[in-house]
Amino acid sequence: MNKDIKRIGTGARMSEAVCYNGIVWVAGQVGTPGESVAEQTLTCLAEVDRILAEAGTDKTRILSTQIWLADIATFGQMNAVWDKWVPAGHTPARATGEAKLATPDYLVEIIVTAALK
Questions:
Q1: What predicted TM-score, i.e. pTM, was given to this entire model?
Q2: H-helix or E-strand containing 97?
């Protein structure tokens, strides 16, 4: 297996993802400020799909997910979107919690780790 580190979307502070030793770690994805929790969740998951594709894998290979909500009362709204997105039989280990996010405009942040193909 290739032991080189591959960085995707590298910026001054962070990369969108880092691939190493058959695993891809995707940085936290957030939605567009002003959107609802459901809309932000859709935006986050679309970005996860895009980044996983760039890494050479897809959502069926997600190993674990961390979801942070600005308000845990929106858990059901986020889950309604998640449940339509995650492929049956390929649900990852997942944790969801409440936290202050980078700005009050962000209502959800999604972090994933996936196996490469």
A1: 0.95
A2: strand 93-98
